[in-house]
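Researcher: Next sequence.
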Amino acid sequence: MSTTLAPAELHARPADSTLVVDVRAPGEFASGHVPGAVNVPADHLDALLPDLRSAAERRRIVVVCAAGQRSAAACAKLADAGVDAVGLGGGTQAWTAEGLPVDTAAHEGRAVWAMDRQVRFTAGALVLAGLALGRRAPKGRLLAAGVASGLVYSGVSNTCGMAALLGKLPFNRPAPDALDAARAALRA
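Model: Next structure:
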C-alpha cells in the first residue's frame, strides 16, 4: 500500500470517503488549503488521537502539509498510534502546482507567513545580525556560524528546530476554540 496519494488522486476521491487533515500552523492553513481540510497542527495530533482514530474507522485519512515532510512525520506518528493514514505527495505546493482549487480561511489582522518563509526570514536576519555584531565584536560572528550550522543540520536531518521554535509563537498557535472545531469536524 502506498504511503502517499497524488494530488489528482485525492481530488478524484469522493469527499465523503476521505478526511483531509492539514498539519500546518493555523496561519499557513489560512493562507490556502485543500478544500474541506481540517486543521490539526502537528504538535496537537496527540490531543486529538482518539478523534482521529474514530474518524479513520469511517473515512480514509489523508495528511497534508506544505511540501510533504511534516505530513510524513505525522503519518508515522499516527501509524505508531494505530491510525491508518497516507500523506499527500508534495503537499499543498504540489496541489496548487497542478492547478487544483484551494480554500482560504478567514483571519483577523495581517496574514501569517508560511512557516518556510518565517524560517528563511529569521535565519537571514540572525545571520545579518551576527555579521553586523562581528564588526564590533568578533565573537558576534558566532551567531551567524550557529545559524549556518543549524541550517546544515536541518538539511541533513530533514528536521527544523527553528520551525519548531517559531511554531510556538502566538500567531502560529491555534485559537483556543480551533481544536474544539477540529474535534467536531473529526467527529462529523
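Model: Strands lie at 4-5, 18-22, 38-39, 60-64, 85-88. The CA atoms of residues 117 and 182 lie 25 Å apart.
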